[in-house]
Amino acid sequence: MTRHRLLWLTRETGSPEDGSRLPAPGFEVTRVESAADVLNLLRARAADCVLVSGVPQECNRGVLLETFLAADARVPVIFWGRDLSAREAVSLVREGAYNCHSDSDDWDHLQESIEQACHERSVREHDPRRAETGEPWRRNMVGRSPAMEDVANTIRLVGPFKCTVLITGETGTGKEVAARAIHAASPRAHLPMVAVNCSAVPESLLEAELFGHVKGAFTGAANQRVGRFEQAHKSTIFLDEISEMPLELQAKLLRVLQEREFQRLGSSETIKVDVRVIAASNTNLPEMVRQGKFREDLFYRLNVVPLVMPPLRKRTEDIALLMDHFLAKVCANEDIPRKQVTPRTVERLAHLPWPGNVRQLENAVEKAIALSGYRDTLYASDFGLADSSRLLTAEKPLAGSALPEQMDFATAVSQFERAILEGALAKTGGNKTAAAEMLGLKRTTLIMKLRGLHGADSPLAVAG
Predict the structure, then answer these.
(1) Domain 4-131 has CATH 1.20.1560.10
(2) What is the Rg, in whole angstroms, of the alpha carbon atoms belonging to the chain?
(3) Which residues lie below 8 Å from residue 270, measured CB to CB, with a gap of 6+?
(4) DSSP tag of 163
(5) H or E segment at 77?
(6) N or C: which end of the chain has fewer CB within 10 A?
(7) CB of 102 within 8 A of CB of 81?
(8) How many C-beta atoms lie closer than 10 Å to residue 258's C-beta?
């Protein structure tokens, strides 16, 4: 088993900084009492992670961090101290610290942070491409369009802070993905984010879901239950579809945002929590405020930092990247070889309106992969674009005023189909594969249609 080398700078002994409690399996712990000793070991590449719990009197944490990173820019540095304030922790993380813990954090959280830091150090050493990423939270924030860069910049700025964020945008734009990115960019990332969809929980149960309840608080409450806010202590809670929250419960949520305290349903005990709140809505909250359907004071409490997720139609340059991301994701989930999409299909998809946004695109990719069978290439027909022949500039169908008084319907349809097929072949110089892709048809289907219109012996119907 590979043993991770943990370098521990400490000037104190005894609980809670007891060396025997450090993770023994897979770790080699070296305790030192001076920054000079840390520097010598870092220069000798003798550490996978540095834990600082005792700061020498001659310097502060910021100076230590700068000094250690100058010796080894990739080494993760974790600070742990009784006097470590939230403000200083945010500053250290922004300056390059891997994580910060106060004495109120339990040992399991610190140990998990150390293990994760050593694992990521190992990955970076063996895969230099991941080292270039620098921001793990961007892995699922797919896109390089100006609109997405604005979103990423906002997340980068607000991530280290505790401030409340209100994410708005149309359905399917990726509001929860953005919320998880904010959480991953924060010092709370070592704990899981707690997500609640306010529209998916019945109004009568939503209060108990958020704040918990005691035994006997209502019919069916056979046991005491911890609510989602309590579960999110020291972490982040994401309240999706916040506009669906009843007005009465909005008042209680306002108190939680103001005081960071609440009471379980059926109890008079006040519970204090340290939680960051991120809310999301796809409705116009200011309009709901004007209609009296949403509390104005709650809206301003939630809207400390507004983040608007752009619709897919305003970031069409990201569709190729999103397609690639979803192809990799779906194929991996299905445990099948990676498929690809023709450039012409991607171009056609980029011109669609996508009212369901990124979620609709992901569903379309999943459907196309299922319909493509064992083929390794996806075509327009796999995405249901076979009826998109209107995109061609072929002959236009006869307008109603131009129709003759008497005309056989089947003959008219045949003539129109012939014009479409011949127009596609003319545009592609007779290339049947390209013509089929342009029409959203399979090549074999195109040839069969040509044989039906021109006969099997026609040069147009030859499978060449």
Answers:
(1) no
(2) 30
(3) 261, 262, 263
(4) -
(5) strand 77-81
(6) N
(7) yes
(8) 10
Q: Is 105 in a helix, a strand, or coil? A: coil
β-bridge pairing 261-263 and 270-272: antiparallel
7: left (phi over 0), alpha (psi -120 to 50) or beta: beta
Ranges for all domains in the chain classified under CATH 3.40.50.2300: 4-131
3-state helix, strand, coil in the chain (%, to 5): 50, 15, 40
Class of 146-308 in CATH = alpha beta
List of E strands, 376-441: 377-378
Cβ-based neighbours of 18, under 8 Å, separated by 6 or more: none
CATH 3.40.50.300 intervals, the chain: 146-308
Q: Are 285 and 243 in contact (CB under 8 A)?
A: yes
What's the CA gap between 65 and 404, in Å, rounded?
85
Name the CATH architecture for the domain at 316-376: Orthogonal Bundle (1.10)
> CATH 1.10.10.60: which residues of the chain?
391-461
Nearest partner of 425 among 456, 454, 387, judged by Cα: 454
Per-residue tokens: 391: 């995109």
CATH 1.10.10.60 fits 391-461, yes or no: yes
pLDDT in tens, 117-167: 887 777 666 544 444 445 788 888 899 899 999 999 899 889 988 899 999
Beta bridge partners of 77: 50
Distances (CA, A) of 223 to 194, 201, 236: 22, 19, 26
Q: How many CB atoms lie within 10 A of CB 173?
A: 25
Give 385-431 pLDDT, tens digit per residue: 754 433 333 334 444 444 555 555 666 666 777 778 877 787 777 78
DSSP 365-377: HHHHHHHTTT-SE
Q: What is the pLDDT of residues 46-93, one digit of tens each?
A: 788 999 987 776 678 888 888 888 888 778 899 888 778 777 887 787
Judged by phi (left if over 0) then psi (alpha if -120 to 50, else beta), residue 373 lies in left
In angstroms, the CA 286 to CA 263 distance is: 29
CB 424 within 8 A of CB 439: yes
**Global pTM exceeds 0.90:** no
CA angle 164, 165, 170 (to 5 degrees): 155
Q: Collapsing DSSP states into helix, strand and coil, what is residue 201? A: coil
CB count within 10 Å of CB 5 equals: 18
What does each C-alpha distance from 234 to 42, 162, 200, 252, 331 come to in angstroms? Answer: 32, 10, 25, 20, 36
Cis before residue 343, ω within 30 degrees of 0? Answer: no
CATH 1.10.8.60 residue window(s) in the chain? 316-376
